[in-house]
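Sequence, please.
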């Protein structure tokens, strides 16, 4: 299974190209992202803890050589933005919709 995305982002990155490498419904997704000369391999696993809870684990690995851009550590910035994304996702999932 292979699927590709071309994402336009506001800010210094500009665009991100992603390729889906592996997908198991309700269990795992692996994809590679290319942006600004950087290649990032991401693995996300999902494990049901109960009927209403799911644990999400994310593994990020930079592939190849990357350098500092715009005077800040790229790896640190990407890890921070990824962590914020999943914190926002967690909050959205935990909201109780009005009955």
């Amino acid at each position: 299974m292979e699927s590709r995305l071309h994402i336009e982002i506001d800010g210094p990155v500009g665009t991100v190209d992603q390729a889906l490498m592996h997908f198991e419904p309700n269990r795992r997704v692996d994809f590679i992202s290319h942006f600004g000369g950087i290649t990032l391999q991401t693995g996300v696993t999902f494990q049901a803890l109960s009927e209403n809870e799911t644990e999400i684990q994310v593994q990020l690995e930079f592939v190849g050589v990357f350098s500092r851009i715009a005077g800040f550590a790229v790896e640190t910035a990407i890890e921070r933005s990824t962590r914020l994304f999943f914190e926002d996702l967690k909050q959205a999932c935990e909201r109780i919709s009005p009955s």
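The longest strand covers residues 38-48.
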